[in-house]
């Protein structure tokens, strides 16, 4: 089962969360367990919009104190606005199908309803 790490944009860290092709997770929030959780994708949860609008392919992650830097590949627009986050203070993992996608091959998602 493929998972997506959902990263909230908190007031404390929102200036550090997302810049271009990299998402930053402050190490105070813990280390993302990408391999252990079979996490291939990431989705920023925008607090101002109260939703996830895009899912991004994860190309790599490096620990560069004081953050974990997650480098992005392809992006996929979420139909509607996904807002099933359980808490908005720390990242969490959700299965890919919750975002109505399936993975056809590594880094290529397809809308679930069209299969």
Describe the structure.
The chain is mainly beta and 115 residues long. The chain is 3% helix and 56% strand. It is built from 1 helix and 9 strands. The strands form 2 sheets. A 7-stranded mixed sheet has the order 2-3-6-5-4-1-7. The protein starts with a strand and ends with a strand. The model has no long low-confidence stretch (mean pLDDT 88).
Which structural traits does this protein have?
115 residues, mainly beta, two-stranded antiparallel ribbon, 3% helix
Main sheet: strand order: 2-3-6-5-4-1-7
- Residue ranges: pLDDT <50 for 5 or more in a row? none
The coarse overall form would be: globular
Tell me what portion of residues adopts beta-strand conformation. over 45%
| Mean pLDDT score | 88
Q: Bin the helical content.
A: under 10%
Query: How many beta-strand elements?
Result: 9
Radius of gyration computed on alpha carbons: 13 Å
Please give the largest β-sheet.
7 strands, mixed
End-to-end Cα distance, whole Å, is: 18 Å
Secondary-structure-based class equals: mainly beta
**What is the H/E string?**
EHEEEEEEEE
Helical run tally: 1
Question: What does the secondary structure layout of this molecule look like, with pairings?
Answer:
Blueprint: E1 3-8, H1 14-17, E2 18-19, E3 22-26, E4 39-46, E5 51-64, E6 67-82, E7 92-95, E8 101-105, E9 108-111
Parallel strand pairs: 1-4
Antiparallel strand pairs: 1-7, 2-3, 3-6, 4-5, 5-6, 8-9
In short:
It is built from one helix and nine strands; from the N terminus they run E-H-E-E-E-E-E-E-E-E. The protein is mostly beta strands and 115 residues long.
